[in-house]
Amino acid sequence: MMKRFTSLTYKTLINMALRVTGVVLVSAGVSYVHVISRLETQTKMQLERYITRRGQQESTIFKLAEDNLTSLRDRLVQELKQPIDIDVQAEFARQYFAWNDGTLRNFPQNRPTKEFDSMRYAGSVIGRNVQMTEELKHRQLTANKLVSAYGAAWSNRFVDTYYLTPENTGVNYWKGVPIALETPPEVNNPKEEYFYIADPQHNPKRSPQWTGVYLDPSVKVWMVSAIVPVYEGNRFLGIVGHDVVLTDLIQHAIEDKLTGTYNIIFRSDGRLIAHPQKIQEIQQAQGQLKIDAINDPHLKRIFQLATNTKTQTQVLENSQDREYLAVTRLQGPDWYFVTVYPQSLLSGAAWDTAKFILISGAIALLIEVLLLLSVLQQKIAKPLQQLTAASNQLTNGDFAINLDTTREDELGELASSFNSMASQLKTSFIQLEEVNNALEIRVEERTTTLQDTLAQLRRTQTQMIQSEKMSALGQLVAGVAHEINNPVNFIHGNLTYIENYAQDLLKFIQLYQHHYPHLVAEIQTEAEKLELEFIQDDLPKMLSSMKIGTNRIREIVLSLRNFSRLDEAELKAVDIHEGIDSTLLILQHRLKEQPHRPAISVVKNYSNLPLVLCFPGQLNQVFMNILSNAIDALEDANQQRTSTETAAHPLTISIHTQLICEQQIMIAIADNGLGIPDTITTRLFDPFFTTKDVGKGSGLGLSISYQIVAELHKGKLHCHSTPGKGAEFVITLPIKAN
Length: 738
Fold this sequence. Notes:
Blueprint: H1 2-5, H2 8-81, H3 88-95, E1 97-98, E2 104-105, E3 123-126, H4 134-154, E4 160-164, E5 169-174, H5 193-196, E6 209-210, E7 214-216, E8 221-232, E9 235-245, H6 247-255, E10 262-267, E11 272-274, H7 279-284, H8 297-307, E12 313-318, E13 323-330, E14 335-342, H9 344-379, H10 383-395, H11 410-515, H12 521-530, H13 532-563, E15 572-574, H14 576-586, H15 588-591, E16 601-605, E17 612-614, H16 616-640, H17 643-648, E18 652-661, E19 664-671, H18 678-681, H19 701-712, E20 716-722, E21 726-734
Parallel strand pairs: 16-18
Antiparallel strand pairs: 1-2, 2-3, 3-5, 4-5, 4-9, 6-8, 7-8, 8-9, 10-11, 10-14, 12-13, 13-14, 15-17, 18-19, 19-21, 20-21
Helix pairs in contact: 2-4, 2-9, 3-4, 10-11, 11-13, 13-14, 14-16, 16-19
């Protein structure tokens, strides 16, 4: 028995088992750490992508509400500035009726409110003791008309649209609900949160505001109100607002989540909006439940970490509670959307991997020990067979050979020599493999470098060709403008003298006819033949038409000369509006009515801009590219819209300029075409990317425009697009380019 325990077979089995066990344990530990590290990195990246998408998704309704209300506010102010073309007193008396509760409403009290057509018209109520001036009556009538129209158009996304005044009057469109006719007479809108948060005292910056969450008592749904103040100059005219239903948003935030996580929403002031475990508490508090008032330290730590973030979207680690927090700020109501990801999800997955390695290692260890025991027992007495097996290992490329060299005989020496040979072969093969791998890496690097260089050369060559084309175009336009300008100036300058001479001759003829009314027969016959009376009447008109024509030619020549600055390579202080107008003039033939589409209207909203130090020719090229793309987009939209849709939404290009600050200007060019999908927006400025048919676009227009704005002028060029509603390109330029 003692001899069995001290045998070579037993010792070899024990040593092998201990070593393999150690390797298995180390492998399991390293695998656990590695899996944890990889899962942490992957989880953070996944959370960042997820929270960015959710933030954009959940912010859509709030951004749309602010945009709608801004449009309604602008339209209301514009309508109020128009001359009054109706009898305000008579129209007001026709629409409004006195009720027994002291209010005025736009429906008789003696008729059932169900007869009021709330699908088409907004309800209107004027509070008690309101002094109705003619201006207030006009404002109320105008608001009623606009809220009815806009509210019906927006009713598929927003339950109501309303306008409230500081005098305590209001107009409200709620599809199918005559809410203004059911409003209690004691309601004083200026004292309510949805009004005073936007008044001059609480909102001196005149920015859009959002109320807290509240449960609407009439329809029993959770809402939040978007409010935009209305000003005429410095005069506060009231507010326009939307009520946003939060039922779907809260349900979506709670139910749409990553596996094992949960989502919460809260305001920056600590009011809790949505939490899967505190829904009843939020409802009982009528949307006023503050995190500070809840005995939940965990939730308080989440609130503190989230509100301390400086960026729009961020993934934080809450080490105290062993969890990750994916935080994003929703645009509009200043809410925080937080996804809580417990780190236990990572450790569980990593532990499963480690257990699998341990179990697999144990099974492999048991099998290996049994096999090794069988081999040693059968072949310990046959060392030559071991050498044969070792030779076979070398033949198969397996150099992991460790023969026993403790024997002091010829077999021991042979085993030592064999081990040395195997080691040398292994080293040689390893070195050869390393050299081969290094060569493959160098070939791949060189190939990648050559591909990048060829791509860059191709882009540079195409851009140089495009620049040469535009430069040649500029020289051609400048030459044509110069050749036209000289004879036109000669004609225009002499027209004044011709007009004076013609007037003198006509006066002379009239004077002659006055003193010699009875002409000799020959002169009378010649005058009738020449139609002298017609000439006297038509000649001044012809000269005036010629003068108008030469002035038009001079304007066209001036625009051509402005646009022909493409070859100028020096910084110049120029009027940006001249470059835009010159480009529009060159594109005038595309803007006119075509056989396959109506004319495209251009709406220009120019601000008072200073002269901008820039490369004018390069900027004209940018305007040409963007305006040409806008015309193409409108032509595509016209082909996909019916004549009724085109009549309701005429093809329009809007150009807006603005002085952002003392050092920057902004130029916005928008169209009301079909818009650009998000998948394409991210690649708009990539070289050679185009969605046009072959032969209609090179894919370089916007890429070159981006380089001109961003690299040459150190400005910014980006695109905003809403599918189905059009696209807008915004150019931001420094007033003095470096």
